[in-house]
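new request in #modeling-help
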Amino acid sequence: MKKSFTTTYRHIRRTPYQALSAITVLTVTFFIATLYFLVMAGSEKVLRYFETRPQVTVFFQDEAQKDQIDALRAKIRSNPGVSDVKYISKEEALTIYREQNKDEPLLLEMVTADILPASLEISATNVSNLSEIAKIVGQEPGVEEVVYQEDVINALTGWTRGVRIAGVALLSFLSATSMLIILIIIGLKISSRKVEIEILKLLGATNWYIIGPYILEGVFYGVLGAFFAWGAAYVLILYTTPFLISFLGEIPLIPIPFVFMAMLLAGLLIFGAVIGSLASLIAARRFLR
Amino acid sequence: MIRFENVTKEFPNGTIAIDDVSFVIDPSEFVFLVGPSGAGKTTILRLLMRELHPTSGMINVDGSDLAAIKKRELPLLRRQIGAVFQDYKLISDRTVYENVALVSDIIKRTQREIDEHVNEILSLVGLEEKRDLFPSQLSGGELQRTTIARALATQPSIIFADEPTGNLDQATAWEIINLLLMINKKDTTVIVSTHNQDIVESVDKRVIELVKGRVVRDTKKPPEQKAPTRESAKSEQPSGETPQKEAETRLEKEPQKVENETVPEETKVKSQKQKRKKKKE
């Protein structure tokens, strides 16, 4: 194994520009793949965030009694499709309103707790339960209005699904491209050393002795490309963090936990190594027949 | 032992390279394979290395039938046979040392073992001064000696030298032949394919002659040693010692370890007799 590393090192050292171009192209490819993967992971998280937010808000008439509201709350809670029910009193509604409009004194002056309705904020376990819950609640006495975000969630679900499908397609395409790049470069190297390979075979070298260094070279390109791509993506995320925080608002996506980034690095390194070894193996096998 | 039994090799284009060839080469034997170009000498080497498969017939090397050898066992067979190729087959971007060390590396010797072994072989073939040169920096004789050194590196039981004197002047050709004779003295079977009649006639060894792929002569029992062996060599030398003597001197100075200690008694007696004869001359 140590010998294979030495031979790999010699191959790379003797063709530094080929090695450089391989690593550069793979870095760019993996960088795009990494960014898209982060977008995919991010969109999933955004969707999950919206799914856990109160999705149905029930506003009560002013004359609705506390008992009535409590009874309805208990009834809703017993529904298996409901994950959480939160009561917002008139006073709490005012507090929220004040918090939201703290920079607009004019709006604050005009509003008192009386004119704000009490409400129940209901979270569903599944987005598809929303319309059913809204329908049931709407028929209850004392309820003035039911607002639910089915459309928003539906749009978001569709969007996430689209991102996921596009992501899988893009990642497959980029994987195939990375494999082709390594296959071509290693193939060229093997082709230029065809005579040497023939000699090695005649001298009694095993197949692994011959192709081992080429497979290690492919792994080296893949792993290094993956590492640089991860580094570049991480730097980009850190650089754009202030912008992303203001863009995403309440959605707690940034900062990305370091553990997640470390796992992403591990995944990328494995991905790079697999792509590299597979491509080199395909390139080398042609010459071993 | 090498056994060819009714071996025929026909190429897909219809060319018959060797036709119904049979011979047996005993361990520690030195055999010249002679014949004009295209007689099938190189084909025999390629069949022996199982680079080619015979169309018919059976080839047996040290008890194993080559047709029965599995693909993954092929490297082991090839390590048994030290091949000296007509076109050298040296790796151009590796030095003399690296080319010779390569075989030791293939058989997984440690770096220390490789260093010791390669240095020993290089001094045996007289290339210790050239160890860091690349093949393009060597003369024909030096290239040939490098390939012989490489062939020796696995301490094979058989050395097959394909036209080792083909591109060399007479003096250098003698150096190479003497080196091979010296290797044979260490109980290695040596097969030399050549069309250099002078050398074949001057060295008293078994000759298998091929013409158009068929064996036309096999001097299984070597004739009595001819007197003019060294004289004819001497006449080719510009001055000083004959290459044969030179090689012998080198051998005496740097005796290589004989791996196989159980040398057949017959062989020992034979070589002692030959030495005595030479002294008388």
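bot summary: The longest strand of chain B covers residues 16-25.
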